[in-house]
Task: structure prediction
Amino acid sequence: CWEWFHRTRETEFAPLGDMAPHASQVGAWITAESPDEVGIRFVGNILGQGIVHDRDGVARYLALAGDDVRLAPRIRSLAHHHAGMAAIASEEFAQARRLLRAALVGGEEVDGTIQHTCFYLAFACHHLEMPDEALEAVQRCREASGRIAYHNMVLHCLRFEGEIQRLRGETDAALELQRRALALAREVGEPV
Result:
């Protein structure tokens, strides 16, 4: 199990395969050690795959790691991101909003994590009936995704942004966003 972890620790979404039953043990070991970026990614990965025996405990660990001022801002941001994603999965939208906003304070755009952080922050704000903040977050996601030509995420953002605008009563803006989403979907070969 430990050999597998060290072999795959550079892979954000390591294929768990036969190691899945042991992943929670590896996660517990990582949480007992001083966390680093790879460890935080691994714990976030197994948490996201739902194979952690103590989901709440791991989510609490990630939130605490995110608040640990001794850790580098990049690691704290990543920990807050994964804890926020766990809160989304548990439908704890107020907690998710707090954690995902904290992840953005880290200031660094970690490998494309910012796009997912912003998108799910918009999702949490949408569920909390905070349309202005949801709109701001989804626009930030779209802009960041556009900078790296992450077309699928731009497409999701345009659709979501259009829905937010529709709910705000901004039908002209909503229709324009949906038109742009349709054009992009056709351009990149996505189903309409």
User: Anything to note?
Assistant: The longest helix spans residues 171-188. The CA atoms of residues 32 and 61 lie 10 Å apart. The radius of gyration is 18 Å.
